[in-house]
Amino acid sequence: MSNDKACIVFTTGLDQKAQEVSQQLNKRGFDVCMAKAEQEEVEAAQAAQPVSEEIQSCIDNAVISIFLVPEEGYECLEGAAGHAVACGKTIVAIAENVESLPQVFDDHASSVLTIDSPRLSDVIQGNQVWERADGSPSAERKIDRVKCQ
Q1: Three-class SS of residue 65?
Q2: CA distance 15 to 86
Q3: pLDDT tens, 43-83?
Q4: By CB neighbour count within 10 A (0-12 exposed, 13-18 middle, 19+ buried), where does 94 fall?
Q5: Biggest CA-to-CA distance, the chain
Q6: Distance between CA 4 and CA 11 in Å, rounded?
Q7: What are phi and psi of 96, to 5 degrees?
Q8: What is the model's pTM?
Q9: Domain ranges of the chain
Q10: How far is the C-alpha of 60 from the C-alpha of 149, rounded, in Å?
Q11: Which 8-state DSSP code applies to residue 62?
């Protein structure tokens, strides 16, 4: 069993899904920290302020950060995702609509799943999975590389 820590960042309305994801992580031996992003996170991001101490601490102490991304009102997650990127954390996005994913997740997530994906256990085991809106696997993602002159 692993004793790694996982962070779940979610918004209002996704509390039940956060519990389900937490249970799956617990079964795989992860200690789980859950942080709810709310309106003050949006205001902090707009003012170029850091995310709340609770969210920072959850992300800082985890090896993997899982973000539950709603179809609307996901702005409160963007600052937290930026913090996870800056810390070099593995980022997984579980989205209600994978077709309208915020740019930070499209650029930095190692996996993107639909909200009811059966492949979460694969991702927890370290596999990279990208899904289309219908839940089918997306084609291999091409990573744009900058070539030095």
Answers
A1: strand
A2: 26
A3: 766 666 778 899 999 999 999 999 999 988 888 888 899 99
A4: buried
A5: 50
A6: 23
A7: -70, -35
A8: 0.87
A9: 5-124
A10: 36
A11: -
